[in-house]
């Protein structure tokens, strides 16, 4: 087994076990220039954007678009250490439905800085003229936008600290706006801010977050950002589960690589990106990115079909005793439930999507969820639900409440989340609720045996949904059924009632 580093790179393929499907960068990494700073280097960025850049570099392109990763949170010290020991290299393993494993060592991340270690180094890196894109995967909650009002929350303690006079920036907002200020003051054109998080209108959301923060700090700077900084929206897609020790062992055994933090993912990849990059961009289209003028149809399709369906399967599946997405999606009744949600509720809210056959797309989604080798955990999908349900599912509900459309599937999804947040599954096993609002949601869920709408009364999460009698009737019926008959029987009933067709 070979420890992964620039020095060992050339010998990796030769020393890999026979039959290993492994490729490594053969381009000269030492001559690359950093053109992108990426905040939030987790599994997804490494399976997606960094992979596209590596692909371009392998074709002799994008040599001035190497990535400097940045960790904003102290917890990113683990990523700092893993990447530092490996010269920024890591193994991306794609897990095909037939069990085939294909590995590629990715070389496009050439630097990594942890903001809490050295904020000044991060600021100067972002301020450097060679950097023309600052991209982000800081999670849905990372934009600090209130679900109901859509406003940036200036009272967040981290934000408030960064707004104080003379503060050393610590948040995404403080860091990015201070770097922009330095560029403006030095006469350097601004970088483009490229959000790659699963949020509808992620570019606009990023624009609102950064300009609101800047306005509270320095109105002239906010004006400059509003006028001169581009915030392209994007739709990004590749299911990337959390890396496990079993993945590390697999990379060692199957590819002969000792990698502290490989990343595993499904083979599917998609990236639709709005083409607004005034100071330039890599030739993304040459790597398979769909560079489009309007990304919204792609975003809505993905968030309301894929991501909302993830929520549709995770709580009922977990309550019924499953722990992996494929265990749920692989069963006919749950697959029909997913298709029922997609066909009856998700799809009617969508406009046609250029170049996409929605029926084929939905069938592919169920197949992707059912890929057993990806082993995506339901726990990952259940986490931070208060940041996901309001962004992906509630817009679908609101659309149908306004237009008299169906809401039964979505009402069951929300009720299953409420039942999940009671903190115990149907076999009596405790559930660890991972959510920034966990305590509050758990308390509300505990009250719902006596007060069925207790969970829905959280107006920060649900807005005025609790005032809609059609929704509350469907929701309360679903919750009662979950309590009395369990998740599987409740899903079976709904599928039977709504004539759910075969999902495949
Ligand atoms: N994993 C996937 O399948 C997938 C697919 C498409 C899009 N995405 C998007 O990427 C995001 C990250 O997913 P991941 O799988 O890489 O997760 P991850 O947990 O591996 O990485 C998340 C990164 O975001 C950082 N972060 C979290 N909250 C932050 C905050 N408030 N401020 C600054 N940084 C913060 C973390 O420190 C970490 O570096 C998702 O939330 C989603 O929007 C993920
Ligand atoms: O990572 P999140 O929080 O945006 O959402 C959980 C999953 O739905 C998501 O990660 C999907 O796997 C991904 O969006 C597929 O491209």
Automatic annotation (TrEMBL):
Keywords (A to Z) from UniProt: NAD, Oxidoreductase
Q: Is NAD one of the keywords?
A: yes
What PANTHER family does the entry give? MANNITOL DEHYDROGENASE 2-RELATED (PTHR43362:SF1), MANNITOL DEHYDROGENASE DSF1-RELATED (PTHR43362)
- Record InterPro entries: 6-PGluconate_DH-like_C_sf, 6PGD_dom2, Mannitol_DH, Mannitol_DH/Oxidoreductase, Mannitol_DH_C, Mannitol_DH_CS, Mannitol_DH_N, NAD(P)-bd_dom_sf
* Enzyme Commission code(s) on record: 1.1.1.17
Protein species of origin: Promicromonospora citrea
Protein origin, superkingdom = Bacteria
Q: Which residues form the Mannitol dehydrogenase N-terminal domain?
A: 35-284
Q: Which reaction does it catalyse?
A: D-mannitol 1-phosphate + NAD(+) = beta-D-fructose 6-phosphate + NADH + H(+)
* Entry's Gene Ontology molecular function annotations: mannitol-1-phosphate 5-dehydrogenase activity
- Domain Mannitol dehydrogenase C-terminal: from-to ranges: 294-482
Q: What is this protein called?
A: Mannitol-1-phosphate 5-dehydrogenase
Q: Which family does it belong to?
A: Belongs to the mannitol dehydrogenase family. UxuB subfamily.
**GO term, biological process aspect, one:** mannitol metabolic process
Q: Residue span of the signal peptide, if any?
A: none
Q: Which Pfam families match?
A: Mannitol_dh, Mannitol_dh_C
